[in-house]
Design a protein that fits this description.
5 helices, 5-stranded mixed sheet, globular
Length: about 270
């Protein structure tokens, strides 16, 4: 079996986890070849600047990772790209009566995170010149650690038609649907990659119009995938969003800071910069 693994989103100093994930699949039965396609949201002007928070620390953007990735990972394709603006005016404004966050910023930050992951997924997929040369394609993130590496992955499931393979790790933190791991045939992953952002926006509009809170991740995921006539199988491959490798800087009392990506969240009459 020949597979492609797509990595997308912020790197967050996660090169060791990219290698671990690739090595894990290379040792699985029936997998003879694993190619990596990597899309990273990265900006030269933000090196050493705050791109997120971890407790009372700022998460800093790393230096240009190109040389290390080419040396350690040897990807089939690699692309670094600045974060584009994400417009959220099609998603209803924050309403505390049925919101799933504590403030407009918390809500839009979460939506921004999901939508940018969907966009990076599509861009990583588009790096593949001929998806049909692969028996299966997997999409995951740069910053995930496999917690049970002895788990024998049932590779035959990746070739089930019209079926998305997910993992328990995709839902540990209660996301509406996992953005951590998707696997399937080239046709299935192409369908998901090219529709994920639109479906996410459409679902949020529906949920807010119906005054719905979260229904639970598996129910929401099934409802979501049904829009593409896709089924899903969930596996006990445990991922952890590992934060021990972050580049951190302690926030000192009274220190002012801003998170770089907030300026890319766009709503009419609201500025998060």
């Amino acid at each position: 079996m020949k597979i492609a693994i797509l990595f997308g989103g912020l790197l967050r100093n996660g090169i060791p986890f990219i290698k671990e994930t690739i090595d894990y699949f290379r040792k699985q039965k029936n997998i003879e070849q694993v190619d990596a396609y990597i899309h990273i949201t990265w900006d030269a002007s933000l090196v050493g600047k705050c791109i997120g928070l971890h407790f009372d620390n700022m998460i800093l953007q790393e230096e240009d990772p190109t040389e290390e990735i080419e040396r350690v990972i040897q990807p089939k394709k690699l692309k670094l790209e600045k974060q584009a603006d994400i417009h959220l005016d099609d998603i209803p404004d924050f309403n505390p009566a049925y919101a799933t966050a504590d403030s407009p910023l918390d809500q839009d930050r979460m939506y921004f995170s999901h939508i940018t992951q969907a966009i990076s997924f599509q861009k990583a997929f588009n790096l593949i010149e001929n998806p049909n040369e692969y028996d299966a394609i997997i999409r995951t993130r740069h910053d995930l650690k496999i917690m049970n590496p002895d788990f024998e992955f049932p590779t035959h499931l990746l070739t089930l038609p019209n079926t998305v393979i997910t993992t328990h790790g995709s839902f540990i933190d209660g996301y509406e649907w996992g953005d951590w791991f998707y696997g399937g045939t080239p046709e299935t992953i192409s369908l998901l990659a090219n529709n994920l952002e639109t479906l996410y926006r459409t679902y949020l509009q529906y949920r807010y119009s119906q005054n719905l809170k979260k229904e639970g991740p598996f129910l929401e995921l099934r409802r979501f995938l049904q829009q593409l006539s896709l089924d899903h199988v969930n596996l006990h491959l445990l991922f952890k969003l590992d934060r021990d490798h972050f580049l951190l800087k302690k926030i000192t009392p009274g220190e002012s800071y801003s998170i770089a990506w907030y300026k890319n969240i766009k709503r009419k009459n609201i500025s998060y910069s």
